[in-house]
Amino acid sequence: MSALFVLALMTAGAAGWGGLILKALKVEGAWHLPLAFTLGIGGLGWLYFLPPAAALVGWPFFALLAAAGLPGLWFLRSARMDCQPATPWTWCLWLIGLFIMAVDLAEALAPPSDADSLAYHFAIPAQMLAEGRLVFVPRAADGAIPLLQQMTYLGALVLGGEQALTLWCMVSGWAGPWLAYAVARRWLERDWALGLAIALLCLPAQLYGAGTGQVESRMAAFTLAAALGLVASQAGRDWRGAVLAGLAAGFAMASKYPGLLIVFLCGLALLAQRNGLTKAVAFSLAALAAGSQWYVWNWINTGDPVFPMLYGLVPYRPGVAWDETAQAAFRHWAGAIEAPLSRGLDDLVSYPLMATFRPHPAIDSGRTGLGILPLLLAPFALAGAFVHRRGLAGSPLLIFAGLVLGFTLLWFFFGASQRVRHYLPVMALLLIPMLVAALRCGSVRPVIAAALAATILIQTAGQALFLRPFAQRILAGQSRDDFLVANVPLAFAALAANRDLPAEARLVINQRQWLYLIERPTWFVTPTQQAVVTLRRDELGPARVLEQLRSIGATHALGMIGEMEAFARLGCLKPLTIYEGPAPPASRTLGPSGAETVTVDLAAIDYDCLDRK
Amino acid sequence: MAPLPELASVMRKRLTALAAWAWVILGLALYLWQFKDIAGTLITRWLA
Questions:
Q1: Mean pLDDT throughout B16-34?
Q2: What single-letter DSSP state applies at residue A340?
Q3: Nearest by CB to A357, which of B20, B23, B31?
Q4: Measured between alpha carbons, how far is A8 from A27 in angstroms, rounded to an integer?
Q5: For an engineered disulfide with A223, which of A40, A145, A425, A470 has Cβ 3.0 to 4.6 Å away?
């Protein structure tokens, strides 16, 4: 099917499914359409679990599930357009918004090049498609994880191939800012709401992740939808708002482990409402229905629903390749790479300043941060909230602020990763109340307008820089392979291996971005995230490692001779060829740094090597 | 000449506005400072 048709089908199907959910819950509001689309993304991801679970990965199943949502579009027909007259500022903002969306389109037209997407967001759906069934990847942190959003990627991949996949990421990535605009309109005039939505749309973390397979931007939309459910629940006496919150929070929980924090916080917020217990029960049931499938899947495969976080606390199933050594290596790696900074109370206060002005390299803030707007608005928002403190009680904005505060504390002190982009799911919930409060702070509107405009201009300039490789691809007419070689570290070796290896080859590799690119079954032998093949444990001896390699059916090793030196000396690795290509670019955005080249070896595994000794 | 309370009010408003502008300008300048290396790289490449 053509990629554009698939995009239209999945987008309309998602909106339709969302329309059905909203109709069932009798939810009304100006944010009807973006809320329906957001819920529909989650609904589609939930439904797309079923075909691979039944080993039915043919396109008709995915097409039917998307098409089944289309009747729900009927319930969205009353969605109103924003009728406030346009001002010159409206047109300016629209122009900037269109530019940002054009950059997103240029990215979506290019092959995927983001490392995490190539390693698992897209690689796992591609593996499921190749094997025709639901696949459990026994890799901590990026394999055995909640995969709701990745199931929508699987649907796009099955229906329309890689192009449909990247286009779907683009459109679904817009859901969060779109919903934020609709929600902000309740309190703000159109230009302010539009400015806020555009500031969110070009936020570095959104720009970095929304067009790729990264889940945070779509999770931000789910989180905002969950907050709207809390608001609806507070306004009504029955359970419907709680169910809406439960579904949306469940989708967040099925997107990534930090979604569990959203579920916990929403549950607490509901308990604090009138008829809280009934609402909390309805919420919990909805969240479990929407979000538990991947936890059950993990539990079925390992015995640990949040593998490997409960290692030592719950019994693991026999045969699960994980032990004390693997756990210790994983903990050490996760601590050193994902959360290297201290977590005291003073760090909590200094973190926003550090992340904004002088970011630690480990938190990826310069390139994928959250911009300057929250800090610029902070004093005005605090002053505005103080001046209008009497009107705060019962305000939905207080619910938003409470969720943000709770998420901040839990994420800061207990979150697995300190990368600042993991805070993206609550950014809209943070910025909406901040801007509303700041605009109520006396006569500083021109200053706030200047702050918002400067933020948008700076972020749009960043977007223009980000455009470089994608524009170059279009202007120079680069092929898929040329683009990948220029923008993905060591992609040349994966593409060459695709040409040279027999169809039945199975590889072991040590570069995770090759997982999507290599068109053969491939095993990433990371020493810290999996324990199925343990090359670096000398005490096991070569015979045991050969047994491990045999268990996964490995026939070849790409770029592994250095890593498997002892093996190579024993004659267990037979060098076949050496590929030469450009050294990894210093920065994907800034492009290649020089003309250096590197080499990657391809070797065949000889299982008889020890017998001959 | 304006009466003293009115003058104080005007002064307070002006000082508030001044502080607000200073906060925003300083914040933007500090934020942009971290990208000086990237800007330097780009300018060097363009000049080359």
A1: 96
A2: -
A3: B31
A4: 25
A5: A425
Distances (CA, A) of A520 to A156, A497, A557, B4: 21, 9, 12, 83
Give the DSSP per-residue string, A413-474.
Answer: HH-S---GGGGGGGHHHHHHHHHHHHHTSTT-HHHHHHHHHHHHHHHHHHHHHHTHHHHHHH
Identify the burial level of A91 via C-beta atoms within 10 angstroms of its C-beta, where 0-12 means exposed, 13-18 middle and 19 or more buried.
exposed
Question: Predicted confidence band at A578 (pLDDT cuts at 50, 70, 90)?
Answer: very high
Q: Which helix (H) or strand (E) holds A605?
A: strand A597-605
The token pair at A395 is 């305000």
Q: What values do phi and psi take at A501, rounded to 5? A: -85, 145
pLDDT at site B46:
81
User: Is B24's CB within 8 Å of A376's CB?
Assistant: yes
User: Which among A481, A509, A491 is positioned nearest to A602, based on CA atoms?
Assistant: A509
Element (H, E) at A224: helix A216-235
Query: Around Cβ A178, how many Cβ atoms within 10 Å?
Result: 19
Tokens 């809390």, located at residue: A230
Torsion over CA of A265, A375, A423 and A269, rounded to 10 degrees?
10
The minimum CA-CA distance between B39 and chain A, rounded to whole Å, is 10
d(CA A182, CA A184): 6
Say how many C-beta atoms besides its own lie within 10 A of residue A420's C-beta: 24
- Side chain identity, residue A161: G
- End-to-end CA, chain A: 55
Interchain contact, B28 vs A372, CB within 8 Å: yes
Who among B13, B23, B33 is closest to A443 (CB)? Answer: B13
A97 closest CA partner among A469, A474, A459: A459
Q: What is the mean pLDDT of residues A356-367?
A: 87
Distance from C-alpha of A359 to C-alpha of A365, rounded to nearest angstrom: 6
- Token pair of A562 as six digits: 């250095």
Q: Is residue A593's pLDDT more than 80?
A: no
Instruction: Identify which of B20, B27, B33 has the shortest CB distance to residue A375.
Output: B27
Nearest chain A CA: its distance from B18 CA (Å): 10
- Closest to A113 (Cα-Cα) out of A600, A594, A513: A513
User: In angstroms, rounded to a whole number, what is the distance separating the alpha carbons of residues A450 and A373?
Assistant: 11
**What pLDDT is recorded for position A230?**
96
CA A513 vs CA A207, A215, A333, A492: distances in Å? 20, 17, 19, 12
Choice between A1 and A317, residue whose per-residue pLDDT is larger: A317
Residue pair A558/A514 in contact (Cβ under 8 Å)? The answer is yes
Closest CA to A244 of A558, A20, A511, A66: A20
Helices and strands per DSSP (H, E), number in chain A: 30, 5
Whether the link from the prior residue into A308 is cis, omega within 30° of 0, is yes
DSSP code string of A3-59: HHHHHHHHHHHHHHHHHHHHHHHT---TTHHHHHHHHHHHHHHHHTTHHHHTT---H
The dihedral formed by the CA atoms of A429, A384, A410 and A196, expressed in degrees to the nearest 10: 30
**Chain B residues within an 8 Å CB radius of A372:** 27-28, 31
- For the stretch A231-288, pLDDT in tens is 999 988 789 999 999 999 999 999 999 999 999 999 999 999 999 999 999 999 999 9
